[in-house]
Amino acid sequence: MNPDEVNWQQPCLLNGIKRSDQLHTPPIYSFDNNIHVNLKEHTSPKGTISVYATNGKKIHSESIKGNKNSFRINDRKGLYIVKVNVEGKESYSNRVYLN
To answer: What range defines the domain where residue 38 resides?
Structure first.
């Protein structure tokens, strides 16, 4: 991979520091203007998925519906932060872009 290319599969944090507990971040990404969260490492996960605008305002929240979650947020375009809280123990976040 060219060092100037962005690898969108890598986990990203708001503060730019990768912690050791986030090395196994589940895939959180956008495709076809949907947000996808894959929790394949969890058995019957429970928790919430929240979407925040870049100004910090929560614009969407829903319960985890199993290992594969996918949803659309009213055809909004732009950069968002998706935060996943699994069973109150683990929290993951990633940036997604909807176009």
So the answer is: 20-98
